[in-house]
Design a protein that fits this description.
Blueprint: H1 10-27, H2 34-53, H3 73-87, E1 92-95, E2 108-111, H4 112-130, H5 135-168, H6 171-174
Antiparallel strand pairs: 1-2
Helix pairs in contact: 1-2, 1-4, 2-5, 3-4, 4-5
């Protein structure tokens, strides 16, 4: 292991750990109540954002590198749909940072489920590439993930967090804080 290798940097390894935790949360949505999901999400999303801001930046990246994708459209849609079902009325919110907002006189509605599915798609691909343990692939995946954070999913994460905060700290929801839904209750 080379001391200056960015993939073994402490911040990279911590980011990978939080990424895996986030992906696990997205993949187990159906095991949560609305309260338990929002409670976990409002804790992990800020941590994920923080760890992404601490990622080491590579000086140069192979612009020709085409990242392999593991999260299919079908997987994306399953995650998005499960989130939408769980979040229900809390899923939709008005977005003020949407790029089209400057051209609109009316608010633009977006969904937490789509924002989190977008973040999941990028991080799921990143995690799958990192698991290959091929250092060249890992370096490229890290570089692409860090760039996508800055220009794409970082803002989506923050937007979803803002709306999740409202849901998590809603008094009606807070009184329904039974930790997890059992598999029998979801049938």
């Amino acid at each position: 292991m080379v001391a200056d290798n960015l993939i073994y940097d402490k911040n990279t390894l911590e980011f990978v750990a939080v990424t895996l935790e986030f992906c696990a949360l997205m993949e187990t949505t159906s095991e949560h109540t609305l309260f338990s999901f929002t409670d976990k999400a409002v804790k992990i999303l800020p941590l994920l954002y923080l760890k992404a801001t601490l990622l080491p930046v590579r000086e140069e990246r192979d612009e020709e590198y085409e990242m392999e994708h593991f999260i299919t459209e079908n997987t994306y849609e399953v995650i998005r749909r499960r989130l939408a079902e769980l979040l229900g009325e809390y899923d939709s919110y008005l977005e003020t940072f949407h790029p089209d907002m400057k051209y609109s006189d009316t608010p633009i509605a977006v969904t937490i489920s789509e924002n989190l599915a977008d973040v999941y798609q990028d991080l799921g691909d990143f995690a799958a590439l990192f698991r290959q343990e091929n250092e060249e692939v890992m370096e490229q995946a890290l570089s692409i993930c860090e760039e996508n954070f800055r220009f794409y999913w970082g803002q989506k994460l923050l937007n979803a967090l803002k709306a999740l905060h409202v849901a998590r700290f809603n008094e009606d929801l807070s009184s329904d804080n039974d930790e997890y839904v059992t598999e029998e209750n979801t049938k």
